[in-house]
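Exercise 3.2. Students should predict the tertiary structure of the chain below and write it as structure tokens, then compare their answer with the key that follows.

Predict this chain's 3D structure.
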Amino acid sequence: MPDGNGPVRMTDEIEDTIEQRKVRESVTQEVLRRDNFECQVHMMQVWLAVEWRGRLDPHHVAPVSRFPELRHDKANLLTVCRAHHDAIHGHPERARSLELLA
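Answer key:
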């Protein structure tokens, strides 16, 4: 908290959060470029009962909740459109059978 006696200093926690955001954004951009800014589920012609929809997201094949060490591992990320991302998480058994979830 500023006390009026000097500049506000960032805590280590805030600095870590800023650094994590920078890493996440950098990895996301690398994965999107690697995948040619295209939904990889759509490109595989694997339909999960949804049509492709504009916004692209990085999807963790091995969930971060179970594999936190893979959070920024590009080999664990796949570019998917929002519709397919929602379908993957809404239908985990079907997504696992298509190897879209670990």
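Discussion points: The mean pLDDT is 81. The CA atoms of residues 13 and 19 lie 10 Å apart.
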